[in-house]
Design brief:
The complex is a heterodimer of chains A (261) and B (791).
Chain A: E1 5-8, H1 12-18, E2 23-26, H2 32-37, E3 45-48, E4 58-60, E5 64-68, H3 73-78, H4 80-85, H5 87-94, H6 99-102, H7 107-113, H8 120-126, E6 130-133, E7 137-139, H9 140-143, E8 144-146, E9 149-150, E10 158-164, E11 168-175, E12 182-190, E13 195-200, E14 207-208, H10 210-218, H11 243-260
Chain B: H1 14-18, E1 34-40, E2 46-52, H2 54-58, E3 62-67, H3 68-73, E4 105-106, E5 112-118, H4 121-128, E6 132-137, E7 161-168, H5 170-178, E8 182-190, E9 202-208, E10 213-218, H6 223-233, E11 242-245, H7 261-273, E12 277-280, H8 283-289, E13 296-304, E14 310-322, E15 349-358, H9 372-390, H10 394-401, E16 408-409, E17 415-416, H11 421-431, H12 437-446, E18 450-459, H13 467-472, E19 481-487, E20 493-497, H14 506-518, E21 525-528, H15 546-573, E22 580-583, E23 586-589, E24 595-597, H16 598-606, E25 610-611, E26 614-615, E27 627-632, E28 641-650, E29 657-667, H17 674-694, E30 724-729, H18 746-763, H19 773-790
Helix pairs in contact in B: 9-10, 9-18, 14-15, 15-16, 17-18
The chains are: A alpha+beta (261), B alpha+beta (791).
């Protein structure tokens, strides 16, 4: 690992002031630190944001669940309020990584990294999330822009993620047997106005599958998907799963999610 | 006194290991320590045009930067192939030079180019980035089955062929095939695996310029072998000036039997810079540069009669050796593979032909089972296919061909001293409730799952012996084992063994043997191993040899102690030696209450005279002290055997396959410690099931290792396994006085065919290892299509 300056602050303004073109915010460090150790990334300044109190915590109102950026996966998984309002969101958090990751990793870190196989981005899309940063609010749809890419600007800091409470929802994933990241993860959420079907793991970036969500908006049942064709075009292909396999799993796991709703 | 042999004694070593008090090579740090970081080739095949170290030499904290030129100038020898194999035409195998640091070319990703030694690891690693290597990249040879048709990697090794070896009789086998009612054929790949010991490899070499002695701490299964190779072949230091210590070692599975380039380089470099040099592999280096296992491409045929009787067997295999011939790389696909190829069956005629090839991948060497898993996978999937094609029950076809008389002269080499294969298979069917399979299958179907059952009956040959025979087959070492049993004056005992424990539990099992033999309490016995300065030369631990060979040496040394003890006790008791009997730690005079304990006798041996209360003159001509050494060279291998039955459930929608029931019934002869043996079976099964369903080493077409981390290399985890049902049968081995047979590799040998036969039974078509979800899903799709066509 290359040497770097370590800053720890209790204040969002100070954190964003310290940010530069060669800095990184550090929350759980579940991706940043291994990347630095492996020499894949190096920064002049690491700005630790874990001590900023306002970035952590869970607030549930009637229609929304708002989770602070540095809230750990384990906290979401075990939150009674989240389990009551959006049980699928707590279940998703319970299924991320392993106990060590769940007790260090944060929601803000996960969505800022936007790993194509991460779980949380699918929750953001399915649950019409709004991402609150230090200077604006962005819809999830506009937030995730590509593989490991988001609309965050340099030095912009996620403060919280606000999820819309759906009528019913479920997240089902087929984990990579080695890493246990999603080979395919499908988050189905039935809102009053429409159904969202967010897919992670299958393509370079999380997306809402309009063919599936369209069919489910007409009839919310797994049989409604029987004749939906999923194209493998643009799907990831690697040693664990080909594009064709992933395309098929998107449909299978969408069905499983609907059945479990 | 109750016998300790056969009792479930908890492992003495676990308190230390489980509380973090073990001492591993990485825990050893010397004063004035330096740290080594290796510059490794990022290319699978390239010529080294230039290695520019000038910038790295000037970097902060750098003590030395050494290259292949330096190692050549100092005339340090290359790494060796330990077993010479001859081709069918009588010619010697062809092996390339393997310098510890590359001089002219690099031949796999991870090959060693230079070493940077610095005051800290960070400084060494940062300076390594400044070493500028000018590579002329060449087209890599990667695939096992394409290697012979590719450009030669080494100019004097045509077709990349190391040897073309034959065991058996082609003509006789063809005659048998000509008489067959049916010929069953398979083509299979035995997938390449990466050993993944929990503790990565490490070395710390400390040269003392005053005594000119090197002390090398290393992660070795075999410190004595490391010492002789680094001394006699690499020429780093004379044997008497090289002490090798393998302290606690966190698993090896074969990958730590022999020294690698890093140990040679650290030892040599320490001498050069006159400071200790420490290297600890990171996990990526382990993936890239530990020797890998398996990697065979096989075509095999079985000739059968319509009633299921086997007539003959043919095996044509291409074995991938990787870029260089590693120490046991050449014996693994030959003498450890070919003789076991016909399995547990009467087979009138057979041959095994193995072509071993070089590729631009990491060297391949022994990995848990070494050759025998590959042999067993071939014959057992072939036998199961024969059963399917003949419409026979898989148990019935096996029993029809089992030998019933022992010793059993197996077709190709082995004379199997003992066994009862029918008893093992019958017991497995009982323990695993084979009768209830159809009912369980229906239950799975009601949940939308496909259920399959698969068998494997195996035998294996372990504790390779005798030395004279294996040496005549090209082996560069003897395969006996040593023990020294030393009574301390106060009556407790230290036992030195030339074998090595890196997870096997020798501290406990060996102590049980000595405690029983000497009548000394278990807690008064210490087992010592892993240090060439302590105890006699030995051959380490691998191939399930330690108990049958090393344990027997302990028995023999204990018997010598008792023999001397009798003489001393007779003198102390003033009776004839012939009147003294030894039982439960006491020398007793027959038909009297006169006796001396072995502790009293030991004390007498160290105080041979009269002094105050002490009255213990030794018999005339007897030397003082109580310490005996034995070297045991067994007359034969030991041949454990067994039958395993696996049941899997397949989700046809996803192809996800789960082992839902696993039964292993093994015959390991006499069992010293059932707790440890069960642990060995569990571990072997985890690795065997891992090979069948999860693990796969994958190089891309350019020779880059795709599965170079746990993100992509699927290590099985606890939640991948059901509770294992274990059972045992016992036919004691006749080749050693304990009656024991090796148990360490059985699970890894038997599980892959048992699991794969179950998968193929579930989906109804052939699937290759590892049976990943996608492969199984595709097989299910194919069967759906063919079923709907048939309908």
């Amino acid at each position: 690992m290359k040497t770097f300056n370590y800053h720890s602050t209790k204040d969002v303004k100070e954190a964003t002031k310290l940010a530069s073109s060669s800095s990184a915010f550090l929350a759980g460090g579940m991706t940043t630190l291994p990347s630095m150790k492996l020499g894949l990334a190096s920064y002049k300044d690491i700005i630790d944001i874990k001590r900023i109190k306002k970035l952590s915590g869970i607030k549930v109102s009637g229609k929304t669940v708002t989770i602070g950026a540095t809230t750990k996966h384990a906290e979401v998984a075990h939150s009674k309020e989240v389990k009551k309002a959006i049980p699928s969101l707590a279940a998703l958090a319970e299924g991320i990584g392993d106990p060590q990751v769940r007790n260090r990793g944060t929601i803000g870190g996960s969505i800022a990294n936007n790993d194509p196989s991460a779980d949380y981005p699918s929750a953001c899309i399915a649950l019409n999330a709004t991402i609150h940063t230090n200077n604006r609010k962005v819809s999830a749809e506009k937030f995730f822009t590509g593989m490991f890419e988001t609309s965050l600007k340099k030095g912009e800091l996620i403060e919280a993620v606000e999820f819309q409470v759906p009528e019913k929802s479920c997240y089902k994933k087929y984990p990579n047997p080695a890493s246990r990241y999603a080979i395919v993860g499908v988050y189905v959420a039935k809102h009053k106005s429409a159904v969202n079907v967010a897919v992670t793991g299958a393509k370079s970036c999380v997306y809402n599958d309009e063919n599936i969500s369209g069919a489910l908006s007409k009839s919310f049942s797994s049989s409604a998907l029987d004749n939906v064709k999923i194209s493998s075009s643009g799907m990831n292909s690697d040693v664990h799963a080909s594009a064709d396999y992933r395309a098929n799993m998107v449909k299978i796991f969408a069905k499983k999610a609907v059945e479990a709703c | 006194m109750a016998s300790l042999v056969g009792s479930r004694v908890e492992r003495k070593e676990d308190k230390k290991l489980l509380t973090g008090r073990g001492k591993y090579t990485a825990d050893v740090t010397f004063a004035h320590q330096t740290y080594a970081y290796f510059v490794r080739s990022p290319h699978a095949r390239a010529q080294l045009k230039n290695v520019d170290i000038s910038k790295a030499q000037k970097a902060s904290g750098v003590v030395a930067v050494l290259t292949g030129k330096d190692i050549a100038n100092d005339k340090i020898g290359g790494l060796i192939a330990g077993w010479r194999i001859k081709s069918e035409d009588g010619s010697d195998m062809k092996v390339p030079a393997h310098p510890p640091l590359a001089n002219e070319s690099v031949n796999y990703v991870g090959d060693h180019v230079a070493v940077v030694i610095a005051e800290s690891l960070d400084e060494a690693r940062n300076a390594a980035e400044l070493v500028k290597v000018d590579y002329k990249i060449l087209k890599a040879v990667v695939k096992t089955d394409k290697a012979m048709d590719s450009e030669s990697i080494y100019k004097d090794i045509p077709k990349n062929l190391c040897f073309d070896w034959l065991l058996g009789d082609r003509a006789k086998t063809q005659e048998a095939f000509d008489k067959a009612d049916k010929i069953i054929k398979i083509d299979l790949i035995n997938n390449r695996l990466i050993p993944n010991a929990m503790e990565p490899r490490a070395a710390n070499a400390d040269y003392n310029p005053s005594t000119e002695e090197i002390t090398l701490y290393t992660t070795s299964q075999n410190p004595h072998l490391a010492r002789i190779i680094i001394s006699a072949f690499n020429g780093v230091a004379p044997e008497n000036k090289l002490r090798v210590i393998a302290p606690d070692v966190g698993g090896g599975f074969g990958s730590k039997i022999y020294p690698y380039a890093e140990e040679v380089v650290c030892s040599w470099a320490s001498k050069k810079i006159e400071r200790p040099v420490k290297w600890v592999a990171d996990r990526t280096e382990s993936f890239l540069s530990d020797c890998h296992g398996r990697d065979h491409v096989t075509h095999a045929e079985l000739a059968v009669k319509n009633d299921g009787t086997f007539l003959g067997f043919k095996n044509e295999t291409i074995a991938n050796l990787g870029a260089y011939a590693s120490v046991f790389g050449t014996v693994t696909p030959t003498y450890l593979f070919g003789p076991c190829a016909t399995g547990v069956y009467k087979m009138p005629a057979a041959y095994s032909n193995v072509k071993a090839v070089f590729t631009n991948t990491a060297p391949v060497d022994a990995y848990r089972g070494a050759g025998r898993p590959e042999a067993t996978y071939t014959i057992e999937t072939l036998v199961e296919k024969a059963a399917r094609e003949l419409g026979m029950d898989p148990a019935e076809i096996r029993m029809k061909n089992f030998p019933t008389e022992f010793p059993f002269q197996q077709t190709l080499v082995h004379s199997v001293d003992s066994g009862d294969y029918n008893a093992g298979l019958k017991k497995a069917m009982e323990v695993g409730d084979y009768k209830g399979f159809e009912a369980r299958k229906k239950e799975s179907e009601s949940k939308g799952k496909l259920r399959g059952v698969g068998f494997c009956s195996y035998f294996e040959a372990c504790g390779i012996a005798p030395s004279a025979v294996v040496m005549s087959l090209g082996c560069g070492i003897g395969l006996w084992e040593s023990a020294e049993v030393r009574f301390n004056p106060t009556g407790n005992v230290t036992v030195f063994t030339g074998s090595h424990s890196h997870g096997q539990g020798h501290d406990t099992t060996f102590a049980q043997i000595a405690a029983d033999r000497l009548g000394v309490p278990l807690e008064n016995i210490e087992i010592s191993h892993g240090d060439t300065d302590k105890g006699p030369f030995g051959y380490g631990t691998y191939g399930s040899r330690s108990l049958t060979v090393g344990g027997t040496a302990i028995v023999k040394a204990c018997d010598k102690i008792v023999a001397k003890g009798k003489k001393v006790a007779a003198k102390m008791l003033e009776v004839n030696e012939s009147d003294v009997e030894f039982k439960d730690g006491e020398f007793i005079v027959a038909k009297s209450n006169q006796k001396k304990t072995i502790g009293e006798v030991a004390f007498a041996c160290y105080l041979p005279g009269t002094y105050g209360e002490v009255k213990s003159p030794l018999p005339e001509g007897e030397e003082p002290g109580l310490k005996e050494t034995s070297f045991f060279d067994p007359g034969n291998f030991s041949f454990p055997a067994g039958s395993h039955i696996c049941e899997v459930e397949v989700d046809p929608d996803t192809g996800n396959t789960e082992v839902v029931k696993y039964t292993a019934v093994d015959d390991f002869g006499t069992i010293i410690n059932p707790l440890i043996v069960e642990g060995q079976v569990h571990g072997g099964l985890a690795q065997g099931i891992g090979q069948a369903l999860y693990e796969n080493c994958h190089y891309d077409d350019t020779g880059q290792l795709v599965t170079a981390s746990y993100m992509d290399y699927t290590m099985p985890r606890a939640d991948n396994f059901p509770e294992f049902n274990l059972g045992f049968t016992c036919t004691p081995a006749t080749s050693n006085p304990l009656g024991t047979k090796g148990c360490g590799e059985a699970g890894a040998i038997a599980a892959p065919p048992a699991v794969m036969n179950a998968v193929m039974n579930a989906v109804g078509t052939e699937v290759s290892m590892p049976a990943t979800a996608e492969k199984v899903w595709k097989a299910c799709q194919k069967m759906n299509k063919s079923n709907s066509k048939a309908a």
